[in-house]
Write a structure and sequence with these properties.
There is one protein chain. By secondary structure, the protein is α+β, with helices and mostly antiparallel strands. The strands form 2 sheets. Strands 1, 2, 3, 5, 6, 7, 9 and 10 form an 8-stranded mixed β-sheet that branches. Strands 4-8-11 form a 3-stranded antiparallel β-sheet, with no helix packed on it. The protein starts with a helix and ends with a helix.
């Protein structure tokens, strides 16, 4: 069974891009001003690669007019546009769209905050680049939005999935695999919550560099297992998984902090984002194991050294990511 996992990893490592993290989703906040109910403050964070921003623009109802000059500034990994507009009659039951989103591969998280603090959350995609502002939004919008964000983040986070894949290479016992994945889940859930809520903070760039280093370390454990027998991490992989899970959780928490949490539904958003992450992780593990089980017999007699070769491939890729990210910090 393990040989096909190795082949998948080898192909993946050859085809993987130099940067593992997906383009962060955009973020649009529309906040109604309590003193002037027809006035709104808008913050629109547009994803960017370096100084190149995506060509996205907020399209408000035609009646909305600027009441002050727009302002733009750098904000983390994106560009933040600030607007103050007047919309006669308010925005309830009116449509807002993101022009240019249909021609991209990113999403935009929308948060519309009423004067009384009620919050509507939505996720706009290239297939659905607009939404209607609701007068009385429900909690299910927040739950579904953050669950899908968590699911998307894990499935597009190549470095996190590569770490899980290395665990599959390292562990042969099913019960130990369950225990190790559980330890990893608990650890990154703890630091995800702590980082998103502001109780723990670390610069995102160094965290991502050390995440790459953790993949290289785990891949090295696979080669040690193949060449020189079991080491401590091979005998008790759940300890390694828990330790590195704390680190990976900081990466998730940093991404969630960039998106932001709705102040009226913080526990719900945090819970559903984490559930989305875990669902994506379990889907990945189940898909790999099912695929391996279906083709294991075909590869049973082939490439006995594939585990070591694949581990070297993953380790080399992770080392390249680590160097790239360190250089970017410096």
């Amino acid at each position: 069974m393990i040989r096909l996992v190795l082949m998948i990893a080898a192909l993946w490592s050859l085809l993987a891009p130099a940067a593992a993290h997906e383009l962060r989703p955009g973020f649009l906040e529309i906040r109604q001003e309590g003193q002037q109910p027809d006035r709104y403050r808008i913050r629109f964070k547009v994803p960017a690669r370096g100084d190149m921003r995506l060509g996205l623009r907020v399209r408000l109802p035609a009646a909305c007019k600027n009441v002050s000059p727009p302002r733009t500034e750098r904000a983390g990994t994106g560009i933040m546009d600030h607007l103050q507009v007047s919309c006669p009659g308010g925005l309830d039951n009116r449509e807002i769209a993101i022009d240019g989103l249909a021609s991209t591969f990113t999403d935009v998280v929308v948060r519309a905050v009423g004067a009384d603090g009620t919050t509507q959350t939505a996720r706009l995609t290239p297939d659905q680049p607009s939404f209607k502002v609701e007068a009385a939004p429900g909690w299910h919008d927040t739950a579904s939005t953050y669950f899908l964000l968590g699911l998307e983040h894990i499935l597009l986070g190549l470095d996190h999935l590569l770490f899980v894949l290395v665990l599959l290479l390292l562990i042969h016992d099913r019960w130990m695999l369950v225990k190790t994945i559980t330890a990893f889940t608990i650890a990154h859930s703890l630091t995800l919550a702590a980082a998103a809520l502001g109780f723990a903070e670390a610069p995102q760039a160094p965290v991502e560099a050390v995440v790459a280093l953790s993949i290289a370390f785990a891949a090295a454990e696979v080669t040690h297992q193949s060449n020189r027998g079991a080491k401590a991490a091979s005998r008790s992989p759940w300890i390694m998984a828990f330790a590195f899970g704390l680190l990976h959780g900081l990466g998730f928490g940093g991404a969630l902090k960039e998106i932001g949490l709705p102040q009226t539904d913080v526990p719900l958003a945090l819970l559903t984002f984490n559930l989305g992450v875990e669902a994506g992780q379990l889907l990945f593990v189940a898909a790999v194991l099912a695929f391996v089980a279906s083709l294991d017999r075909l590869l049973a007699m082939r490439m006995p050294r594939l585990r070591g070769i694949t581990a070297y491939g993953i380790g080399s890729l992770a080392a390249a990511w680590f160097i790239q990210r360190v250089i970017a910090i410096v």
